[in-house]
Amino acid sequence: MNQVICTVDLVLLTLQAGELQVALLKRDREPFKDVPALPGGFIHADEDGDARFAALRVLREKTHIATPYLEQLATFSGPARDPRGWSVSIAYYALVSIDVIQQARQDQVQLIPVDKLMPLPFDHKSIVDTAVARLRSKSQYSSLPCYLAGESFTLPQLQRVYEALMGEALNKVSFRRKMNEMGMLEELDGQFGAAGAHRPAQLYRLKQEYKESLTLLERGL
Amino acid sequence: MNQVICTVDLVLLTLQAGELQVALLKRDREPFKDVPALPGGFIHADEDGDARFAALRVLREKTHIATPYLEQLATFSGPARDPRGWSVSIAYYALVSIDVIQQARQDQVQLIPVDKLMPLPFDHKSIVDTAVARLRSKSQYSSLPCYLAGESFTLPQLQRVYEALMGEALNKVSFRRKMNEMGMLEELDGQFGAAGAHRPAQLYRLKQEYKESLTLLERGL
DNA sequence: TGAATAGTGTCTGTAAGACAATATTCC
DNA sequence: GGAATATTGTCTTACAGACACTATTCA
To answer: What is the pLDDT of residues B66-120, one digit of tens each?
Structure first.
């Protein structure tokens, strides 16, 4: 009567070609064998320190990716979401730059734009939707999008990341004021982004102390 | 190896004497029998439609309270949090006015100010801390505190609720502008709050369409 | 009328966005 | 020099908070 299936699922998000994309893997077993779905797996009570460790383990085992940012999203549950029975999925979302995915050389990973997502097994579609909503919401007042921008980036690049997530053009002066106000960036001195026939832009990176935590804005972008 | 204990826990919060308080119940069984703890229980796979229903069931069975607001908080997990083994607790938090608790006539419920909380069994203390942090954070830019104010209330009363949660005095003019801007209140026409020797205040209530959902502010209080 | 609190009008300073000027690169 | 984009300066407007004035009740 208390038999509940307990799993973790991962929404791995990245930005490619100006579009937010989610990583899917073909399932290696039933149910839904060979159908693309979120990376996920059972909690291993004998080895996992908690659900977060289970999520990191699943991400590592299935995609060989170590993410700079992982946050618990929500827990999805019920008798119908998994044909095997009453189940609980503790969902996490991770943000990585497209380079991290390409360097992992995981040919099994497919990236699908979240706005053009097909139906998915289980309730994975609504898990993705929840993650995207959370990311978009947090982007309005935090440094979260920096994790999509990679190790180093210019302010114009970072602004395009924010704009892609928020779906609207941002004021350049305000954007720079806000990034400065958040104080989580440091100049890479003397280093500039590759330029065309125009002035190159200063490169920045996240300060070490903000690699693991977010900065919040008092009043949003 | 995949044997995981699956439970829900409830952080029932209310405001009494200007202080945020959490409802605790003496546990009716081992482990920690007779020790005050959060209301909680196992998921019943044979009757619960999902974890949210399980939380509502637990709240009803243990306190006879039906809450106007219930939100999933986070999921806590690990091998050590429960002496019975590797466990998952899907935590929810609920907000009720003090009247609701008093009308439920649940003498077993004890209210403890969250800022003076003793150590609790399991990881219930950190669950409470997480809930309080979430509530305080959301209070800055949403209508969430209204659920602590009861069925009807005056604007000065509501402002005191917000101030108690945010721990700072708020500007009266701004506060009224913001509440008006959120547009979730309606006047109870001709009805006024009980007054002393001074002008009585207009009574308001949440509009029907906001009874189940929050309104958000663009820029916080 | 005086005390107390509710509710509103108005001013001021701050911050956000618009606009534009300057800077730097490659051709 | 011209094209393109980066970076910074400045002006305008909108909004948050301060202050104070009016309103309403009871003693």
So the answer is: 999 999 999 999 999 999 999 999 999 999 999 999 998 778 999 999 999 999 9
Q: What phi and psi, each to the nearest 5 degrees, are found at residue A202?
A: -60, 135
Give the CATH superfamily of A5-138.
Nucleoside Triphosphate Pyrophosphohydrolase (3.90.79.10)
Nearest nucleotide over every DNA/RNA strand to the A221 CA, judged by C1': C16
The top-level CATH class assigned to A143-210 is mainly alpha
Q: Residue A196 — left, alpha, or beta (φ > 0 → left; ψ -120 to 50 → alpha)?
A: beta
DSSP string, B70-137: EEEEEEEEESSSSTTSSEEEEEEEEE--HHHHHHHT-TT-EEEEGGGPPP-STTHHHHHHHHHHHHHH
Q: What is the pLDDT of residues B128-161, one digit of tens each?
A: 999 999 999 999 999 999 999 999 999 999 999 9
| CATH 1.10.10.10 boundaries in chain B | 142-210
What's the gap in Å between the CA of B74 and the closest CA on chain A? 6
Q: How does residue B2 score in pLDDT terms, banded at 50, 70 and 90?
A: low
The two three-digit tokens of residue B147, written as one number: 């659920």
The answer to whether the Cβ–Cβ distance between B50 and A4 falls below 8 Å is: no
Comma-separated ranges of CATH 1.10.10.10 domains in chain A: 143-210
Residues of chain B with CATH 3.90.79.10: 5-138
Half-sphere exposure (CA, 13 Å, Cβ side) for A42?
A: 12
Please tell me which residue of chain B has the smallest CA distance to A220: B219
Distance from CA of A7 to the nearest CA of B (A): 9
Query: Chain A within 8 Å of B213 (Cβ-Cβ)?
Result: no
Residues of B in contact with A90 (CB under 8 A): 75, 77, 88
How high is the mean pLDDT in each 10-residue block of chain A (221 residues)? 88 97 97 98 97 98 95 98 97 97 88 98 98 97 96 96 96 96 93 85 96 90 85
What is the percentage of chain B residues whose pLDDT exceeds 70?
99
CATH code of domain B142-210: 1.10.10.10
* Nearest nucleotide over every DNA/RNA strand to the B154 CA, judged by C1': C6
Determine if strand C comes within 7 Å of the CB of A171: yes
